[in-house]
């Protein structure tokens, strides 16, 4: 993956002078996809919605203390109070139950998911109540290591683009897609650098 990231850095630096400056300051891309079984990754992404990475990791650790291994059958046995004890909110509980219901009906869903192209992957994931485009993009980027994902629904990415490109307001989806077109086929790597740029956002 290091060689791929080197190619991505060169490509992005050639195509975008603003990204080039961010890349020079941030250094090597340290994005590390963490593939796991699809059910586990789907549960993780539900937990991670709208909270910090640190908080999500803590909640997931509490869940895994109760559910070993992470299977649909074991998750089904958890009560609402069990979920709350792990720190999982009611809406996220409902999303996990919806996921389990979907898996029970669509028997091949978990097996087929890793084989799908990016757009088909998104369409498959957003059919599950409680999982939207942002969740699908995070799975593609951090779970399956897809290199050309542009998470247009991510607030951190929107803030980075607004600040780096000196926009008056948060960018629209259309603006983000147009701006990121030259970054193909490494929009995931570009996004990682945009997230990194938030570390020094107070300097803008």
From TrEMBL:
Residues 47-199 form the HhH-GPD domain. The keyword Phosphoprotein does not apply. The keyword Mitochondrion does not apply. Keywords: DNA damage, DNA repair. GO terms for cellular component: cytoplasm; protein-DNA complex. GO terms for molecular function: alkylated DNA binding; DNA-3-methyladenine glycosylase activity; DNA-7-methylguanine glycosylase activity. It comes from the Bacteria. Its EC number is 3.2.2.21. This is DNA-3-methyladenine glycosylase II.
């Amino acid at each position: 993956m290091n060689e791929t990231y080197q190619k991505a850095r060169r490509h992005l630096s050639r195509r975008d002078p603003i990204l080039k400056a961010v890349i020079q300051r941030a250094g090597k891309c340290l994005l590390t996809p963490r593939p796991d079984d699809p059910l586990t990754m789907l549960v993780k992404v539900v937990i991670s919605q709208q909270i910090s990475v640190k908080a999500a990791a803590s909640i997931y650790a509490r869940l895994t203390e109760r559910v070993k291994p992470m299977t649909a059958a074991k998750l089904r046995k958890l009560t609402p109070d069990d979920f709350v004890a792990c720190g999982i909110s009611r809406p996220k509980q409902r999303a996990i139950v919806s996921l389990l219901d979907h898996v029970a009906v669509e028997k091949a869903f978990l097996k087929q998911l890793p084989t799908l192209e990016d757009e088909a992957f998104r369409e498959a994931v957003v059919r599950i109540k409680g999982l939207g485009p942002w969740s699908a993009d995070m799975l593609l980027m951090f779970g399956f290591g897809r290199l050309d994902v542009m998470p247009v629904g991510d607030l951190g990415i929107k803030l980075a683009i607004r600040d780096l490109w000196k926009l008056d307001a948060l960018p629209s989806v259309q603006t983000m897609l147009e701006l990121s077109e030259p970054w193909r086929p490494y929009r995931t790597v570009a996004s990682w650098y945009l997230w990194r740029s938030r570390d020094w956002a107070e300097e803008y």
